[in-house]
Please model this.
Amino acid sequence: MTLTPVFISQIIISFIKKGDTMAFKNTKERYASFGIATSLPHDIIDTFWDLLDNYLKDVVPLDNILLFRLTQKNNKLSFEYHDHKRNILIVFDYNVPFDPFFPEIINIVDNHGIETIMLPYEFD
Model:
């Protein structure tokens, strides 16, 4: 089960250059790292895949490493997608309680079609 966004509260897109490459085009397998699996509920993990598939792919250029932040807005959970290279910020608001024990920063990595949600410290 994935969560349904209540509202996309903020979209800031500076510019998208013609010819930007797109990662996440050839999905073969998907995983959640140990750090993610032990710190987030299953429906939150599924929501990351939903955001990627339905709100980001074929909408904005995607690099091989995506950056998300879990934040709170009025005690509810928001997912922030950040692309500093292109100056893109998209905030997805959800009507579920924010949990301060959730990790703040989450990455999704595309390694030649093997896609993994992971915490920044798990890259090594």
